[in-house]
Design goal:
With 512 residues, this protein is α/β, with parallel strands linked by helices. It folds into 4 domains: 5-52 and 61-82, no CATH class; 125-167 and 299-354, Elongation Factor Tu (Ef-tu), domain 3; 171-293, NADPH-cytochrome p450 Reductase, Chain A, domain 3; 368-510, 3-Layer(aba) Sandwich (Rossmann fold). It contains 17 helices and 20 strands. The strands form 6 sheets. Strands 11-6-15-4-5-12 form a 6-stranded antiparallel beta sheet, with helices on one face. The longest helix is centred in the first third of the chain and has 19 residues, at 64-82. The radius of gyration is 26 Å and the shape is globular.
């Protein structure tokens, strides 16, 4: 058997590249490094890992696209050697414009202007916004909101589960895009959309590969133009400008040599698709190609911060609003959290509920240690609420934030649990003293209780939060505790941690 495997992943996450390695081992091949990509057609597996987003390697063109190009060169060479093209056929040029995935046209027979048949409601669960309040101090730089959604009581979820929110683009920016693309005059006219690739399937476009909607609806709820463009966007857009210099610039961005320039132009300053279109205006994208040029606006996942058993028919979320400055004028916003920040009470939205990574295991009498700085406390709140509902008292929470008075999330609730004897709360406020203090420092300061709960009593550790540095420093703190309190060697402490991970007693959910 001759095959190749290309695996991508972020080194910020544990078990990065695990699926690629598993595929290789199952095929009984030897896993080799990225440098062996030229032999991809041979009986071996190539695993390539994507560097951390925004790192030097990504800026210098050794990110996923550069790695894929190098790997693909070997793949195509192997395929052409094994299966040469018939006489008279040649490989398509890299600059060849492929046919559009959809046929899109203004539908005269659809019933007149303003008639809209949505192509599919996103979100199988209908939810009503019951509360949307800021829970950090007004003067604090980070806005965090407590969002409460009301759902049908039949919608059940477990601690650790997640909600998928489907954002909408702001009305003003939608109008700007439609005007910029020359579509303002047909923005509210019904469209006939026929898929050329999904005949007979049910997708976001409709049943049988066909649906009707309007351009305004598409760019409000379905297509994304407020995120940072990827390479494929420039590949298509280069075909739809009459300015030769613009076309060459965009094609340069799509080369391996141009990756650093593309990152400097779009990635580093977080320039949006709309801003790119304005920079390279005019562009004339045919309606047939809108689904190829513009990416679908994906749903965003948020950990549920409540227990269904405690509050059936209610879903709590703890959402940090993404808003920051770069070298460009104006603030940069997260597509979803910007939408969340303006949700008003009484509004109805579509959501999905999905299983999460963290899982409540064992008896409520089994001790647990929870580590959740910032909004990482969201799924841990769900877990704590449910365990207290079941009568548990052996719960230790290590919570960290910047200031006791500005971003101490759910402080009153934690204090109530502490007063009733259901929770031990240990906090790290990193900016309230000269020396910065984080959750890993508090863990080591209270090493005896961590060791007692997790080693002597065979408890469970739950870790949740940002994936950048926190998971590794917390893991190192736990290793230090094992060596200090149990007189373990470093190798013994690593073996103990590995056994806990394999046994489901060291669980973590992280995000970037």
């Amino acid at each position: 058997m001759r095959f190749g495997v290309f695996g991508i992943g972020s080194t910020q996450y544990p078990r990065c590249g695990w699926a690629c390695m598993r595929a290789g081992s199952r095929a009984q091949v030897q896993l080799v490094g990225e440098e062996a990509g030229a032999a991809a057609g041979a009986t071996r597996c190539t695993c390539t890992l994507c560097p951390r987003r925004g790192g030097r390697a990504e800026r210098r063109g050794v990110g996923v696209w550069a790695a894929l190009e190098r790997w693909s060169e070997g793949l195509w060479a192997a395929l052409e050697a094994a299966h040469p093209l018939p006489p008279g056929l040649e490989r398509l040029s890299e600059d060849e414009l492929l046919p559009a995935s959809f046929s899109v046209a203004v539908s005269v027979a659809a019933g007149g202007p303003g008639v809209e048949v949505p192509i599919r409601v996103r979100g199988r669960v209908r939810a009503r916004v019951l509360r949307n309040a800021r829970i950090t101090a007004e003067e604090h730089w980070q806005e965090v909101r407590h969002v409460v959604l009301g759902v049908d009581g039949a919608v059940e979820y477990r601690p650790g589960d997640r909600v998928v929110l489907y954002p909408k683009n702001p009305e003003r920016e939608v109008s700007v895009l439609l005007e910029c693309m020359g579509w303002a005059g047909i923005a509210d006219a019904p469209l006939s959309i026929i898929s050329r690739e999904r005949q007979g399937e049910w997708g976001v476009w409709g049943e049988g590969g066909e649906g009707r909607t309007t351009l305004r609806h598409l760019f409000t709820e379905v297509l994304d133009f407020m995120s940072v463009p990827r390479r494929t966007f420039f590949e298509f857009l280069a075909h739809f400008t009459e300015n030769r210099a613009f076309a060459e610039k965009m094609r340069h961005f799509c080369t391996q040599e141009g990756q650093e320039d593309m990152y400097s132009y779009a990635g580093w300053p977080r320039r949006t698709i709309l801003e790119v279109i304005q920079d390279f205006w005019p562009v004339n994208v045919p309606l047939d190609y809108i689904f190829d040029v513009f990416p679908v606006m994906r749903g965003r996942k948020f950990s549920i911060a409540s227990s269904w058993r405690v509050n059936p028919g209610r879903i709590d979320l703890c959402v940090a609003i993404v808003k920051y400055k770069t070298v460009l004028r104006g603030f940069r916003y997260g597509v979803c959290t910007r939408w969340v920040s303006v949700l008003s009470e009484g509004m109805e939205i579509g959501i999905d509920v999905l299983p999460g990574v963290l899982r409540k295991t064992g008896s409520p009498m089994v001790p647990i240690v929870l580590v959740g700085p910032g909004t990482g406390v969201s799924p841990l709140r769900s877990l704590i609420q449910e365990r207290i509902f079941e009568g548990s008292k052996d719960n230790v929470l290590f919570f960290g934030c910047r200031s006791k008075d500005k971003d101490f999330l759910f402080r009153d609730e934690w204090m109530g649990y502490c007063s009733s004897g259901n929770l031990i709360l240990l906090t790290a406020f990193s900016r309230d003293q000269d020396e910065k203090k984080y959750v890993q420092h508090i863990m080591e300061e209270h090493s005896k209780i961590v060791y007692d709960y997790l080693y002597n009593k065979q408890g469970i550790l739950y870790l949740s939060g940002n994936s950048r540095f926190m998971p590794e420093v917390v893991k190192q703190a736990f290793l230090n505790i094992l060596m200090k309190e149990g007189n373990f060697t470093f190798e013994q402490s690593k073996a103990c941690l590995l056994a806990m991970e394999k046994g489901g007693r060291y669980m973590q959910e992280t995000w970037s």
